[in-house]
Design brief:
Order of helices and strands: EHEEHEHEEEHEHEHEEHEHEE
Helix content: 25-40%
CATH architecture of the largest domain: 3-Layer(aba) Sandwich
CATH superfamily of the largest domain: Vaccinia Virus protein VP39
Radius of gyration: 19 Å
Structural class: alpha/beta
Oligomer: single chain
Strand content: 25-35%
CATH class of the largest domain: Alpha Beta
Amino acid sequence: MTVFPDDAPLDWSVWHEVFERHGAPGTVETDDPPSLGAYFAPGDERLVPSLVADLQAFGPCRIESTWVEEQDWSEAWKQFFRPKEIGPFLVRPTWEEPIEPSSLTEIVLDPGQAFGTGDHPTTQMCLELLAGLDLAGKSVADIGCGSGVLSIASARRGAARIDAVDLDLPAVEATRANSELNAVEVQAFLGRGFEPLPPGTYDVVLSNIISAALIALAPEVASRLVPKGRWLVSGIIRENWPDVLAAAEKSGFSLVERKEGGDWVAAVLSR
Protein backbone atom coordinates (compact mmCIF):
# COMPACT_ATOMS: atom_id res chain seq x y z
CA MET A 1 0.00 0.00 0.00
CA THR A 2 1.27 3.48 -0.92
CA VAL A 3 -0.02 6.89 0.12
CA PHE A 4 0.47 10.00 -2.06
CA PRO A 5 -0.46 13.14 -0.03
CA ASP A 6 -1.78 16.13 -1.98
CA ASP A 7 0.62 18.26 0.03
CA ALA A 8 3.83 16.33 0.75
CA PRO A 9 4.83 16.70 4.42
CA LEU A 10 8.21 18.13 5.37
CA ASP A 11 8.53 15.46 8.06
CA TRP A 12 7.23 11.96 7.27
CA SER A 13 7.85 10.61 10.77
CA VAL A 14 4.20 10.65 11.90
CA TRP A 15 3.15 8.88 8.68
CA HIS A 16 5.77 6.19 9.31
CA GLU A 17 4.30 5.74 12.79
CA VAL A 18 0.80 5.20 11.37
CA PHE A 19 2.03 2.37 9.15
CA GLU A 20 3.97 0.88 12.06
CA ARG A 21 0.94 1.10 14.34
CA HIS A 22 -1.05 -0.94 11.83
CA GLY A 23 1.52 -3.70 11.65
CA ALA A 24 3.68 -2.70 8.69
CA PRO A 25 7.09 -4.38 9.08
CA GLY A 26 8.80 -1.47 7.30
CA THR A 27 8.16 1.53 5.07
CA VAL A 28 9.60 2.87 1.82
CA GLU A 29 9.76 6.64 1.22
CA THR A 30 10.18 8.16 -2.24
CA ASP A 31 10.73 11.75 -3.36
CA ASP A 32 9.41 11.75 -6.92
CA PRO A 33 6.51 11.57 -6.57
CA PRO A 34 6.39 12.14 -2.79
CA SER A 35 4.99 8.95 -1.32
CA LEU A 36 5.24 6.48 1.53
CA GLY A 37 4.50 2.81 1.17
CA ALA A 38 4.64 -0.49 2.97
CA TYR A 39 4.31 -4.16 2.14
CA PHE A 40 1.86 -6.42 3.97
CA ALA A 41 1.84 -10.19 3.92
CA PRO A 42 -1.11 -12.07 2.42
CA GLY A 43 -3.80 -12.46 5.05
CA ASP A 44 -3.28 -8.98 6.49
CA GLU A 45 -6.05 -7.47 4.35
CA ARG A 46 -8.04 -6.88 7.53
CA LEU A 47 -5.58 -4.13 8.45
CA VAL A 48 -6.18 -2.09 5.31
CA PRO A 49 -9.49 -0.29 6.08
CA SER A 50 -8.37 1.11 9.43
CA LEU A 51 -4.98 2.08 7.99
CA VAL A 52 -6.64 3.94 5.10
CA ALA A 53 -8.88 5.81 7.55
CA ASP A 54 -5.91 6.88 9.68
CA LEU A 55 -3.89 8.02 6.65
CA GLN A 56 -6.81 10.05 5.30
CA ALA A 57 -7.14 11.78 8.67
CA PHE A 58 -3.91 13.67 7.89
CA GLY A 59 -5.50 15.36 4.87
CA PRO A 60 -6.32 14.81 1.19
CA CYS A 61 -4.30 11.99 -0.29
CA ARG A 62 -4.39 9.23 -2.88
CA ILE A 63 -3.91 5.68 -1.66
CA GLU A 64 -3.00 2.78 -3.92
CA SER A 65 -2.96 -0.90 -3.07
CA THR A 66 -1.54 -3.53 -5.41
CA TRP A 67 -0.56 -7.17 -5.07
CA VAL A 68 3.06 -7.96 -5.88
CA GLU A 69 4.77 -11.26 -6.54
CA GLU A 70 6.11 -12.75 -3.35
CA GLN A 71 9.88 -12.54 -2.93
CA ASP A 72 12.50 -12.28 -0.22
CA TRP A 73 12.32 -8.53 0.50
CA SER A 74 15.03 -8.86 3.16
CA GLU A 75 17.38 -9.64 0.27
CA ALA A 76 15.78 -7.71 -2.61
CA TRP A 77 16.43 -4.27 -1.05
CA LYS A 78 20.17 -4.87 -1.14
CA GLN A 79 20.31 -4.01 -4.85
CA PHE A 80 19.81 -0.35 -3.85
CA PHE A 81 22.72 -0.23 -1.37
CA ARG A 82 25.91 0.15 -3.37
CA PRO A 83 29.41 1.33 -2.35
CA LYS A 84 29.43 5.09 -1.93
CA GLU A 85 32.23 7.62 -1.57
CA ILE A 86 31.40 10.22 1.10
CA GLY A 87 34.14 12.69 1.91
CA PRO A 88 37.20 10.66 2.94
CA PHE A 89 35.08 7.55 3.52
CA LEU A 90 34.01 4.66 1.33
CA VAL A 91 30.86 3.04 2.71
CA ARG A 92 30.58 -0.51 1.39
CA PRO A 93 27.93 -3.16 2.11
CA THR A 94 29.18 -6.55 3.19
CA TRP A 95 27.87 -8.23 0.05
CA GLU A 96 30.00 -6.06 -2.28
CA GLU A 97 33.62 -6.84 -3.04
CA PRO A 98 36.30 -4.43 -1.71
CA ILE A 99 37.35 -1.67 -4.09
CA GLU A 100 41.11 -1.78 -4.54
CA PRO A 101 43.25 0.17 -4.57
CA SER A 102 41.58 3.01 -2.67
CA SER A 103 42.91 5.89 -0.63
CA LEU A 104 39.55 6.26 1.10
CA THR A 105 38.81 5.06 4.62
CA GLU A 106 36.55 2.05 4.25
CA ILE A 107 33.49 1.43 6.42
CA VAL A 108 31.84 -1.96 5.88
CA LEU A 109 28.16 -2.18 6.80
CA ASP A 110 25.30 -4.60 7.05
CA PRO A 111 22.59 -2.25 8.35
CA GLY A 112 19.96 -4.95 8.86
CA GLN A 113 16.83 -3.11 10.02
CA ALA A 114 18.76 -0.04 11.22
CA PHE A 115 18.97 3.39 9.60
CA GLY A 116 22.28 4.49 8.12
CA THR A 117 23.65 3.17 4.83
CA GLY A 118 25.14 6.47 3.69
CA ASP A 119 22.51 6.95 0.99
CA HIS A 120 20.44 9.51 2.88
CA PRO A 121 21.62 13.16 2.81
CA THR A 122 21.49 13.37 6.61
CA THR A 123 24.04 10.56 6.99
CA GLN A 124 26.18 11.85 4.13
CA MET A 125 26.40 15.33 5.67
CA CYS A 126 27.22 13.84 9.07
CA LEU A 127 30.14 11.93 7.60
CA GLU A 128 31.38 15.00 5.72
CA LEU A 129 31.22 17.18 8.83
CA LEU A 130 32.68 14.45 11.03
CA ALA A 131 35.70 14.30 8.73
CA GLY A 132 36.51 17.88 9.69
CA LEU A 133 36.50 17.24 13.43
CA ASP A 134 39.62 16.51 15.46
CA LEU A 135 38.72 13.13 16.95
CA ALA A 136 42.18 11.76 17.74
CA GLY A 137 42.14 10.47 21.30
CA LYS A 138 38.68 11.98 21.93
CA SER A 139 35.56 10.57 23.60
CA VAL A 140 32.40 10.37 21.47
CA ALA A 141 28.73 9.78 22.26
CA ASP A 142 26.59 8.69 19.30
CA ILE A 143 22.95 9.40 20.24
CA GLY A 144 20.64 7.55 17.85
CA CYS A 145 23.36 5.33 16.42
CA GLY A 146 21.30 3.38 13.86
CA SER A 147 23.61 1.09 11.92
CA GLY A 148 26.65 2.45 13.78
CA VAL A 149 28.12 4.14 10.71
CA LEU A 150 28.99 7.37 12.56
CA SER A 151 30.49 5.50 15.50
CA ILE A 152 32.65 3.44 13.17
CA ALA A 153 33.70 6.56 11.24
CA SER A 154 34.69 8.17 14.55
CA ALA A 155 36.84 5.19 15.40
CA ARG A 156 38.43 5.36 11.96
CA ARG A 157 39.28 9.01 12.67
CA GLY A 158 41.08 8.08 15.88
CA ALA A 159 38.47 8.45 18.64
CA ALA A 160 39.64 6.68 21.79
CA ARG A 161 36.24 5.97 23.36
CA ILE A 162 32.87 5.66 21.66
CA ASP A 163 29.56 5.10 23.43
CA ALA A 164 26.52 4.60 21.19
CA VAL A 165 22.84 4.46 22.10
CA ASP A 166 19.56 3.86 20.30
CA LEU A 167 15.92 3.28 21.23
CA ASP A 168 15.60 0.33 18.84
CA LEU A 169 17.16 -3.01 19.70
CA PRO A 170 17.86 -3.89 16.02
CA ALA A 171 19.91 -0.68 15.76
CA VAL A 172 21.92 -1.55 18.87
CA GLU A 173 22.52 -5.06 17.54
CA ALA A 174 23.52 -3.67 14.12
CA THR A 175 25.98 -1.22 15.71
CA ARG A 176 27.58 -4.00 17.74
CA ALA A 177 27.80 -6.32 14.73
CA ASN A 178 29.15 -3.65 12.38
CA SER A 179 31.71 -2.48 14.94
CA GLU A 180 33.01 -6.03 15.21
CA LEU A 181 32.96 -6.33 11.41
CA ASN A 182 35.16 -3.22 11.15
CA ALA A 183 37.40 -4.32 14.03
CA VAL A 184 36.69 -1.17 16.08
CA GLU A 185 35.58 -0.86 19.69
CA VAL A 186 32.17 0.71 20.26
CA GLN A 187 30.04 0.26 23.37
CA ALA A 188 26.40 0.19 22.23
CA PHE A 189 23.52 0.66 24.68
CA LEU A 190 19.75 0.33 24.41
CA GLY A 191 17.86 3.35 25.73
CA ARG A 192 16.93 6.99 25.28
CA GLY A 193 19.44 9.84 25.09
CA PHE A 194 22.21 9.72 27.66
CA GLU A 195 20.20 7.65 30.18
CA PRO A 196 21.98 4.30 29.65
CA LEU A 197 25.45 5.79 29.14
CA PRO A 198 28.14 5.94 31.82
CA PRO A 199 28.38 9.20 33.80
CA GLY A 200 30.84 11.86 32.73
CA THR A 201 31.44 14.17 29.80
CA TYR A 202 32.32 13.71 26.15
CA ASP A 203 34.46 15.67 23.72
CA VAL A 204 32.04 15.13 20.84
CA VAL A 205 28.34 14.23 20.62
CA LEU A 206 26.78 12.98 17.37
CA SER A 207 22.99 13.16 16.86
CA ASN A 208 21.44 12.27 13.51
CA ILE A 209 17.83 12.28 14.77
CA ILE A 210 14.63 14.24 14.19
CA SER A 211 14.40 17.94 15.02
CA ALA A 212 12.03 17.53 17.97
CA ALA A 213 14.42 15.09 19.62
CA LEU A 214 17.37 17.45 19.07
CA ILE A 215 15.46 20.33 20.66
CA ALA A 216 14.59 18.21 23.70
CA LEU A 217 18.13 16.86 23.95
CA ALA A 218 19.98 20.20 23.80
CA PRO A 219 20.13 20.93 27.59
CA GLU A 220 21.39 17.43 28.34
CA VAL A 221 24.03 17.57 25.62
CA ALA A 222 25.23 20.87 27.11
CA SER A 223 25.64 19.20 30.50
CA ARG A 224 27.47 16.15 29.08
CA LEU A 225 29.84 17.98 26.73
CA VAL A 226 33.27 19.31 27.73
CA PRO A 227 33.88 23.07 27.38
CA LYS A 228 34.48 23.87 23.69
CA GLY A 229 33.24 20.40 22.82
CA ARG A 230 31.45 19.75 19.54
CA TRP A 231 27.86 18.67 18.91
CA LEU A 232 27.24 17.39 15.39
CA VAL A 233 23.52 17.50 14.58
CA SER A 234 21.61 16.24 11.55
CA GLY A 235 18.21 14.89 10.54
CA ILE A 236 16.86 18.46 10.45
CA ILE A 237 14.30 19.57 7.87
CA ARG A 238 15.37 23.00 6.61
CA GLU A 239 12.20 24.67 7.91
CA ASN A 240 12.90 23.30 11.40
CA TRP A 241 16.49 24.57 11.51
CA PRO A 242 15.71 27.94 13.17
CA ASP A 243 13.95 26.15 16.06
CA VAL A 244 16.81 23.67 16.50
CA LEU A 245 19.40 26.46 16.46
CA ALA A 246 17.37 28.55 18.92
CA ALA A 247 17.14 25.63 21.34
CA ALA A 248 20.86 24.98 21.01
CA GLU A 249 21.75 28.63 21.58
CA LYS A 250 19.49 28.71 24.64
CA SER A 251 21.61 25.86 26.03
CA GLY A 252 24.84 27.76 25.40
CA PHE A 253 25.82 26.52 21.94
CA SER A 254 27.08 28.56 19.01
CA LEU A 255 27.18 27.60 15.34
CA VAL A 256 30.54 26.48 13.93
CA GLU A 257 29.57 25.07 10.52
CA ARG A 258 26.38 24.33 8.62
CA LYS A 259 25.67 22.15 5.57
CA GLU A 260 22.57 21.67 3.44
CA GLY A 261 21.61 18.72 1.29
CA GLY A 262 18.26 18.78 -0.46
CA ASP A 263 15.68 19.70 2.16
CA TRP A 264 17.99 18.75 5.04
CA VAL A 265 20.37 20.62 7.31
CA ALA A 266 23.33 19.36 9.36
CA ALA A 267 25.62 21.42 11.54
CA VAL A 268 28.48 21.46 14.01
CA LEU A 269 27.83 23.39 17.23
CA SER A 270 30.24 24.36 20.01
CA ARG A 271 29.57 24.97 23.71
